[in-house]
Design goal:
This protein is of the alpha/beta class. It has helices at 13-26, 53-62, 81-94, 109-115, 123-142, 182-191, 203-210, 233-249, 259-265, 271-284, 296-306, and strands at 2-6, 30-33, 68-71, 74-75, 101-104, 149-152, 157-161, 175-178, 194-196, 220-224, 227-230, 267-270, 288-291. The chain folds into 2 domains: 2-223, TIM Barrel, CATH 3.20.20; 225-322, no CATH class. It is globular.
């Protein structure tokens, strides 16, 4: 089990750089950005963002030393596929192997039209495009120059491309797909090293997928969860209740209808309770949690009380602490 941290670039450049430095020191396995050219879910567009998240990831790689770099998820239609493969491979060299190629099909049509980018209207066609891009990336990363790669797909083509630089990670940068559709799941089966479900990452659904003979056996499954750990169960529940009420009052997207559902759907409790909840996820095949925090103290407690004890997961290794 590993824990990654979703960053807050909307807080400003200096704040997100410091957030990444702290996460690196606290032992979070990865730091995550999104990948949008315009802010989603709003009609208000201001001059201060969003930043270009590939450029920002390069800067974050320079101020961190161990945490990996991911996106939820990279939009594969923003940049020419072979050029994107080169950018990621370059960043992988710069960071000595800390890049995760977390890929998505894109969904915000407005940003395509505003930036005059090619929009693929049909969702499954977008997923097929993403799958082709992933196949191309894997081919380029595993057959660098002097080999010349020719690739002829429905959406993606290169001709006699002597690709460089090769990535630092071998055999290639890990490829994680984000999404729930059957077309996306087919991409996971064909070329994925990881899967980032949006809404379908339940224990029951993951168990069903793992019964599929085509499902990859050694795969990272990443879910987004709030993690609220405290010295006692009651302290954690009190904090979770307050966070839920603030989120509901603010109309936060995805907020469940009740505080009980919020607590059930997330990782909340004392350290031992949270470790048991993480162990339950891992036993089901979910082995990575991406979390976000609204304040510094909860983030520090996850580092101090949980990350330092993740070697005790799965539950057979858990040792209760008095």
């Amino acid at each position: 089990m590993k824990i990654g941290l979703q960053l807050h670039p909307d807080r400003g450049v200096d704040a997100v750089m410091e957030e990444a430095r702290v996460a690196d020191q606290q032992g979070y396995d990865s730091i995550w950005l999104s990948d949008h050219l315009m802010r989603p879910y709003t009609n208000e567009h201001k001059a201060d963002g969003p930043l270009d998240y590939l450029v920002l990831a390069t800067a974050l790689g320079a101020v961190t030393s161990r945490t990996r770099l991911g996106w939820n998820t990279l939009n594969l239609s923003f940049r020419p596929p072979a050029v994107l493969a080169k950018m990621l491979s370059t960043l992988d060299q710069i960071t000595h192997g800390r890049v995760i190629a977390s890929l998505g099909s894109g969904w915000l049509k407005d940003e395509y039209e505003a930036y005059d980018l090619n929009w693929i209207e049909d969702h499954d066609d977008r997923a097929d495009h993403a799958r082709e891009v992933a196949h191309l990336m894997k081919e380029l990363w595993t057959h660098p120059a002097p080999h010349e790669t020719t690739f002829e797909g429905k959406f993606v083509r290169v001709n006699k491309l002597p690709f460089n630089p090769e990535p630092y990670q071998k055999p290639h940068i890990p490829i994680w797909f984000g999404g729930d559709s059957e077309a996306t799941l087919q991409s996971v089966k064909e070329v994925g090293d990881g899967w980032i479900p949006l809404r379908s990452g339940t224990i029951d659904n993951v168990a069903r997928l793992r019964q599929d003979p085509e499902w990859p056996k050694d795969i990272t499954i990443i879910v987004g969860r709030r993690i609220i750990v405290a010295e006692t169960h009651n302290e954690a529940v009190t904090e979770a209740t307050g966070e839920y009420e603030r989120g509901k009052a603010a109309g936060a997207p995805g907020i469940p209808p009740t505080v009980e559902a919020f607590i059930t759907n997330n990782i909340i409790g004392s350290a031992d309770e949270c470790l048991e909840q993480l162990a339950t996820l891992e036993e089901a095949g979910i082995n990575y949690v991406r979390c976000a925090f609204t304040a510094d103290a909860p983030q520090e407690r996850v580092s101090r009380l949980l990350i330092s004890r993740l070697d005790e997961v799965p539950s057979g290794k858990l040792v209760a602490r008095v």
